[in-house]
Amino acid sequence: MENENVINLEEYKKQRKEDREEYYKTLSVPTLKAFEPDCYYINPEKGTMIHVLFITDKSDIFDREMIYVMEDPAGSVYCALVDEDTCEGWHELSEDVFTHEVLKRRYEGELPPFPDPEPPPEK
């Protein structure tokens, strides 16, 4: 005899995860119209973070058009034309998150592993 009030935990977790993923796909976050200097942004679709350093029109490469000068957490510097499409897909990001990613990359492999905690003294 099967009890209707008993559920299979694994099936429930699987269904809940699928429902949650479907729900998050329906959410829409508006994208930006323009980047601001000294602000941080993330593009979840590209998996990329940037820090906009400044805006300039002094570039000979871009024929003296207005450009954003940006850096990523790895230290690479990029430029992009100031245009409505440039900001598509980008969202504001906390400075702390960007800084954490910078430090994580900078000290990757250099930091010693966390030591195991000392065992409690025997009584």
Notes on the structure:
With 123 residues, this protein is α+β, with helices and mostly antiparallel strands. The protein has a domain at 33-106. It has 2 helices and 5 strands. The chain has helices at 9-26, 95-106; strands at residues 39-43, 48-56, 67-71, 77-81, 91-93. The protein has a 5-stranded antiparallel β-sheet with strand order 4-3-2-1-5. The protein is flat. The mean pLDDT is 84.
In short:
This protein is α+β, with helices and mostly antiparallel strands.
Strand arrangement, major sheet = 4-3-2-1-5
* Helix/sheet category: alpha+beta
Number of strands: 5
- Proportion in helices: 10-25%
The span between the termini is 52 Å
The total of helices stands at 2
Shape field: flat
Spans of at least 5 consecutive residues with low confidence: none
**What is the percentage of strand-forming residues?**
15-25%
